């Protein structure tokens, strides 16, 4: 049995829940983690409300190998992620000299006002995650990685974090085009193939455009032979159905 | 105090968690609900695993006025949303004659095989939500609305559902450009304005491109006068800081 390393993602921010900002981080992080052999198992989006953040952090960090958060680490009053994480862990928080040193690379001493020093508030016991773009750091505490919400900064932080992560067997993903076959035609056969190997998960994904439906079948698993075998069975099934079917 | 109608959104599907499909429904639904006066308070993404879906449905339907779900109502073996919802509500599920009638508008009798009839499995006591695009219906049970995952179908279903929803006072949103001012410059003054009216929430949102940072301040609230008053105070603050500041 391949090692499974799991993760959850917590997106923090009213702007996502009102639709003002369209999230770009979920898809990016999902693809990134999958690519390095970490299974993203759950995502939550919560508002800038301390008790909601604390509850979600504590629910998720206990359930998965890692929890990643994005958003709420800027200098304004609505940036309450660091304080909420400290509360979730039951640890103190204060202005961290290491974080101040990083901010000093960007700001002149007279520019480092109280608001900007909020960005140096780091829970006790946390390690910093550097921010090569705007300097204000993220941090890691326990199995929780706290990152910026701005996509370019989050992406830079993720690159910095990645080498320190435990990773499991990488997911092997094979995509098969159903090429004109309707889901309802291949569903029964596909279900039988899906039952035949527990280590392989098979999904069928329709998408719809002005030119009609397009169906893709995706085979996922960590054992190359199992994935190849399921994919071969699916191709055989589709070939057989294509020969048989009445025109739709 | 304005009436508050709240909602959660549950996105069901392995394809989102692996990054294979980039979700487009969260942003659309968030903006849509905000526009009709429903406050989206939480989003979760869970895999195609029955116990995860059941747990999330029961956690969310109890907490908010409405729960909307997307995904997992097609004909293939990985489409387990309807059965999971029935389990969450503790009710039976079977092939629903009303849903079969809808499918018959699209499929010839010999095309209505067992897999396609899965799309007519509807929990007992549910009302159907019509699907003008591909006929397979969604459904409503209690305060839970079960919709397709394909964006165009989900959007059509949401239009059908919307007139039946209780809505609260619409959120009034005013966006103010900080025009070159850094967050750290206006953060303190903004925080004071944010404290002055509980019914108004103020967010500051940086975005980053090759041309540098751009900051937008967003004022949200349900009382027009409160929003206007906070926005005026913010504009006054920004104008004052612009006059004062040293060049950055």
Defining traits:
25% strand; MoaB/Mog-like_dom_sf (chains A, B); 9 helices; Molybdenum Cofactor Biosythetic Enzyme, Chain A; Competence/damage-inducible protein A (chains A, B); three-stranded antiparallel sheet; 2 domains; alpha/beta; Alpha-Beta Plaits; 248 residues; homodimer; CinA (chains A, B); six-stranded mixed sheet
Would you summarize the structure shown here?
The first copy, chain A, contains 9 helices and 11 strands. Chain A has about 250 residues and is an alpha/beta fold. In chain A, helix 3 (about 50-60) crosses helix 4 and helix 8 runs antiparallel to helix 9 (about 225-245).
How many domains comprise the coordinates of chain A? 2
CATH topology of the largest domain in chain A: Molybdenum Cofactor Biosythetic Enzyme, Chain A
Number of strands of chain A: 11
Largest sheet of chain A: 6 strands, mixed
Helical fraction of chain A equals 25-40%
Protein name (chains A, B): Competence/damage-inducible protein A
Pfam family, one (chains A, B): MoCF_biosynth
InterPro entries (chains A, B): CinA, FLAD1_M, MoaB/Mog-like_dom_sf, MoaB/Mog_dom
Domain MoaB/Mog (chains A, B): 8-168
């Amino acid at each position: 049995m391949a090692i499974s390393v799991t993760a959850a993602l917590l997106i923090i921010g009213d702007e996502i829940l009102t639709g003002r900002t369209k999230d770009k981080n979920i898809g990016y992080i999902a693809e990134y983690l999958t690519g390095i052999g970490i299974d993203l198992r759950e995502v939550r989006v919560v508002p800038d409300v301390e008790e909601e953040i604390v509850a979600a952090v504590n629910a998720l960090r206990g359930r998965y190998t890692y929890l990643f958060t994005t958003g709420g680490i800027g200098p304004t009053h609505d940036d309450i992620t660091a304080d909420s994480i400290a509360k979730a862990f039951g640890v103190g928080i204060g202005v961290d000299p290491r974080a101040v040193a990083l901010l000093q690379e960007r700001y002149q001493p007279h520019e480092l006002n109280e608001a900007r020093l909020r960005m140096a508030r780091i829970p006790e016991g946390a390690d910093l995650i550097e921010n090569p773009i705007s300097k204000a750091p993220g941090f890691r505490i326990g199995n929780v990685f706290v990152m910026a919400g701005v996509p370019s900064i989050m992406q830079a932080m993720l690159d910095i974090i990645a080498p320190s992560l435990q990773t499991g067997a990488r997911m092997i993903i094979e995509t098969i085009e159903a090429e004109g076959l309707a889901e309802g035609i291949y569903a029964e056969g596909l279900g039988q193939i899906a039952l035949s190997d527990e280590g392989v998960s098979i999904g069928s994904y329709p998408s719809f455009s002005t030119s009609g439906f397009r169906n893709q079948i995706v085979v996922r698993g960590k054992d190359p032979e199992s994935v190849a075998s399921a994919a071969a069975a699916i191709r055989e099934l589709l070939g057989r159905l294509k020969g048989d079917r009445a025109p739709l």
